[in-house]
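Changelog-adjacent note: as of this version, every example in the card shows the full chain rather than a window. The one below runs 722 residues end to end.
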Amino acid sequence: MADYFETDDVTREYDSVLVKRILSYLKPYRRLVFLTMAALVVSTLGELYIPILQQRVIDESILARFLTFNTARYAQDGEALSAHARAAYDELVSGANVLFAGDLAFVPQNRHTLITGSAETELKERGVLEENSWYAFSFTADEPAAQAVQRRADLFLTREYASKTGGTFFTAAIRTDDLYSLPASEITVIRGKDISRIIRGGALFLAALLLIFLFTFSQTWTANKMSQRVMKDMRLELFKKTASQSTAFLSRHPVGRIVTRLTGDVETINEFFTTVLVAFLKDLSVMAGSLITLFILSPKMALAVIVTMPPVAALTLYSRVKARDAFRRQRTASSKVYAYLAERLAGIQVVQLFRGERKSSGEFKERNRELLNANLGEMYVFAVFRPVVEWFSTLTVAVVIVVGSKMVLSLSVSLGVLIAFISLVQMFYAPVTDIAEKYTLLQSAMAGGERVFKLLDTEETIPDTGKIAAAPAVRGHIEFENVRFSYVPGEEVLKGLSFSVKPGEMAAIVGYTGAGKTTIINVLSRLWDIDSGVIKLDGVPVQNIALEELRRAVLPVLQDVFLFSGTVEENISLGLDIPTEEIVAAAQAVCAHDFIMRLPDGYKTMLSEGAANISSGQRQLISFARVIAHNPRVVVLDEATSSVDTETEHLIQMGLQRVLAGRTSIIIAHRLSTIKNADRILALSAGSLAEEGRHDELIAKNGLYAGLYKLQYANGLSGNSP
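Full-length structure tokens:
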């Protein structure tokens, strides 16, 4: 029973054409797009800078390890070394930041000072590369470190240099074991520059965190602002499109479905921008940046990390397929639950009257269990995927520690590089889980976008090709000439209908249910277009009159009265700039003024949704006043007095006789008391004109109208007399 509401196309996982179309809505907001991308780049660079900063602080300031070369021994035995070992020595000793003290050269150990295992072994065997660990530093004569070196001159190797400014500075070196046997105060003095660099590194670390926070905030703010504006534009475009669609289109699409397009489906596109697109770009940039940084720090260790990635890629692809299937099952199950709830709650009185509570409960229980299983299936996919990815992340860290430790011991990399690698590996794997979990949101956005654009691409509007404006003084001459019309192809409702209504004439249309009475309003005001024939207003085919002009000249009071949430005055004016005096005059003409003034705030009284805070008869009177205030030349009353009591109906008849004077009016009603004074009565039968004439003439004919009269009055089924 609810299949119609459950029907939904299964969208593709990713549609580049659809994504391109969604992104086209960003064109008016290029500045926000640029700011979002710029903030994303800066915040990503900030995140990648932190491991590099850690590496520099650890290697250069905290550990401050040196490769110590004996220059005297190299001068003595250098010729005996292999070309590879000599090249390694020459490259390291001639580099920047190398300190010399005594016969030793001290090369700061960091990511730039690399040496192969064979060269290290050969240099150590020849005594060129010292086994002992040393600490070296530079200072000037007026620094506190100079006094510490003088006091412990027996522990230090020193060398004096002339500076470019004309002064002198010194370098000193001390074995690490001797350094840390000194009092803490002296160690602090000797390593004063390292401590200063650590403090500066901490300040840079805090500054980087602040920068990341500010630009991440900017990225989030601009992305959300951009997406909200896109949603605004898309909702407005959807509303305009829906409002311009034909009644045929609107009759085939449930209101709830259209509302979902304008709200829920547009919201999925908002998630596409804020949660999927920006997050995906951020995750992708972090992953790419992490890999690039890994190769910059140590290509060999980076290759070890790359080896562990294929299983993760395979797992991600497999989980994507499983997530897609789980998403579709969950979507189908939730649609069934929502459709069943909407249908059963709407018809709850019928369910209760026919004692169907137990049956409905069982049916809902089955659908609810299906939804539960679908949700659990979706959760199971991510419950398995996340721990497995974390396991691979831990495995990769373990590989990095094992490989990196060997390289640290062989002087191939520094300890700071190893620590930075661990941070970068964790940084790389965090987005893997995030991207996989965003996949469901991507599918939801694809589905929502597909439905939104399907609605936007639907063209079922009433062609507004009329170039003729209605004359300033419309006379109201209406002509139907051999009009044929069908709501469903092949099932005609109007079958060659022909009649005319003269200007200022009150014509009544009667007939059995299904005769086509209400259809005449639909085709006259062009809510639907006819299949064949011609409808004319003052001799001009209505298709040749601009829709706005036609509907200004012809206004119906529809069978189902609809009032909007707002004041009584707003419901009468409907957005037009109508003076209050004219609104009051219109209400007085239809006898609505008295009850309006009895409302709490008179014409300023707020009506609730559907105007449920006033009676159905009062709603009908306000709809009458609405038509009169807009001053049309043709007024059509469709079942207009079916919702008012006899007394109110009598008051309306008195008011309408004054208001409709000089206007063409068509009254469609089952209650014949409202039309017995009409200038002409048209009796329809199965979409054709059966007879026409005045009340007395048709009674005398004893035809269709007389039959309707007898059914209503002769048998005493109505309290009104003819």
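Structural remarks: The chain has two domains: 3-54+200-457, 478-714.
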